[in-house]
Design a protein that fits this description.
- By secondary structure, the chain is of the alpha/beta class.
- The chain has one domain (about 5-120): Response regulator (Rossmann fold, 3-Layer(aba) Sandwich).
- It is about 40% helix and about 20% strand.
- It has a 5-stranded parallel sheet with strand order 2-1-3-4-5, with helices on both faces.
- Helix 1 crosses helix 5 (about 110-120) and helix 2 packs parallel to helix 3.
- The longest helix has 14 residues, at about 10-25.
- The protein starts with a strand and ends in a 5-residue tail after the last helix.
- It binds magnesium ion.
- Magnesium ion (MG) binds near residues 9 and 59.
Amino acid sequence: MAKSLMIVDDSATMRKIIMRTIRMSGLEFDRTEEAGNGVEALEKLNAAPVDIMLCDINMPEMSGTEVVRKVRELSSCSETKIIMVSTESSQDVMDSVMADGANGFIAKPFTPEKFQEKLSPYMN
Ligand SMILES: [Mg+2]
């Protein structure tokens, strides 16, 4: 089934690297969106929900953990799977963002295999 993806990261370079790594992983999406901050992400999600969101944690203005909380308030995004992609990988941070409604975690630096492993369960 066709899937949609949104990459939320304040670094345009990192968004490009993630997109390229996804392509290398063999995962295919029919629609991909990017957002450079939480406000932009929420605006785009309000216009059109996505199936899978990859979300940075350390971002100015609105942190990824706050983005997760706000996305979980959107009834249109109740089925959206949220995978955090971050250098911030302490157990405390992971536990708290998972409790807020994230579905998984990929540590930076990452590999195509890691995206394959973490995202394929949501591709059917
Ligand atoms: Mg960042």
